[in-house]
Amino acid sequence: MSPSRGGSVPRLPAVRLYESLRTAHLERAHQLAPASIVHRVTRYDFDESLTVGLDLVQAGPVRAAWLVGRSRVRVLEVNEPLMTSSLPATALVLAGLAVRRVLTRRRVTVVSYLIGNADPFASATAPRLRTRLRRRGERVLARVVWRRLDRVVSGTDSARETYARLLGPASPRTSTETVPALPTRHPEARGGGVRPPTVVFVGAFAERKGLPVLLAAWPTVRVEHPDARLVLLGKGPLESDALALADVDDSVTVEVDPARSRIHDVLDASRVLVLWSQPSPTWREQVGLPLVEGLSHGCTAVTTTETGLAEWLEAHGHVVAHDDPASPSVLARSIGTALDARRTADSVLADLPERDGRLAADDLLFAGEGRS
């Protein structure tokens, strides 16, 4: 297959309709049930080398509806209904398939994977009338998509509860399951005993990921743990702040936009991973890819209650802070707790499932269909 095609009909009977594509999606696509991927845009971390062997079609909402309608699709995965940016494309594609069904009598199975755990329709964050009206329209579209789904799998209990609260019960014909969005042990994870006191941050250098709080907390961590080291991996608007701390503190290392192989190497040598997700009126951490990757390498997680995995993490010996997530002292204390626990990588890895949660969810979503 060609790595990427614009304006072409999807070739496979299973199609995934995505708003955007990033490297993590491409990596996982090679493990999931074979499917064409129709997407509107690519993300900042899109790795072109990972597209080889995948059937990718880039198209806007109207073009996507036309192309999917002309394809031989039998199973269609759509972005979850609470991802409001994808609703216009999803609604157009579903409308096109409804017309096709009238003409051909062929019904497509529509499925979705749910990890959203925030209310995108909250009126408190919409002071302008135009915004409030748009959100009312989005809620209507979301409910239409929600009721059209044939199979859904929730990646967290938080997501399942959020959908029930915001969109009501699923259609009586809809098959619903919950499979925790947990990884398996990474193939290259070394495991072993207690690692050196290295703390790692992976992801966007941005306020919503808690980087400013981490930078402010680190000097306090060093007072209690003078041998601790901090590694910051990623890129974003706060790169200069991260580099400024590294300039004055030799315990801090910053690597801007490192290769994926380098990220895995650092995770495999770190004791603690921090993802200090911040609350926001318009965004909430659904799961947190860095958390998933850190767990797969045996890192102890330090995070806030914002992630949908918070309950599982807390129940399995990780550090989840319930106090003020904007407080550097709270974060410093949480990192100290994780370092002092001296948890072995093997004990973290032992809590993980035998099959990756996203792959297990895909088994259910595409069970018996769309794989030829």
Brief write-up:
The chain is of the alpha/beta class.
Low-confidence stretches: none
The CA-CA distance between the termini, in Å, is 15 Å
Arithmetic mean pLDDT: 93
Number of strands: 14
What does this structure look like?
The chain is α/β, with parallel strands linked by helices and 372 residues long. The protein has helices at 23-29, 61-70, 87-104, 129-148, 157-167, 211-224, 239-248, 260-267, 289-296, 310-315, 328-341, 345-350, 357-365, and strands spanning 5-6, 14-21, 36-42, 56-58, 75-78, 109-114, 151-154, 175-178, 198-204, 229-235, 252-256, 272-275, 300-304, 319-321. The strands form two sheets. It has an eight-stranded parallel beta sheet with strand order 1-4-3-2-5-6-7-8, with helices on both faces. A six-stranded parallel beta sheet has the order 11-10-9-12-13-14, with helices on both faces. The mean pLDDT is 93.
Could you list some keywords that capture this structure?
single chain, 372 residues, alpha/beta, eight-stranded parallel β-sheet, six-stranded parallel β-sheet, 19% strand
Question: How is the topology of this model organized?
Answer:
Blueprint: E1 5-6, E2 14-21, H1 23-29, E3 36-42, E4 56-58, H2 61-70, E5 75-78, H3 87-104, E6 109-114, H4 129-148, E7 151-154, H5 157-167, E8 175-178, E9 198-204, H6 211-224, E10 229-235, H7 239-248, E11 252-256, H8 260-267, E12 272-275, H9 289-296, E13 300-304, H10 310-315, E14 319-321, H11 328-341, H12 345-350, H13 357-365
Parallel strand pairs: 1-4, 2-3, 2-5, 3-4, 5-6, 6-7, 7-8, 9-10, 9-12, 10-11, 12-13, 13-14
Helix pairs in contact: 2-3, 3-4, 6-11
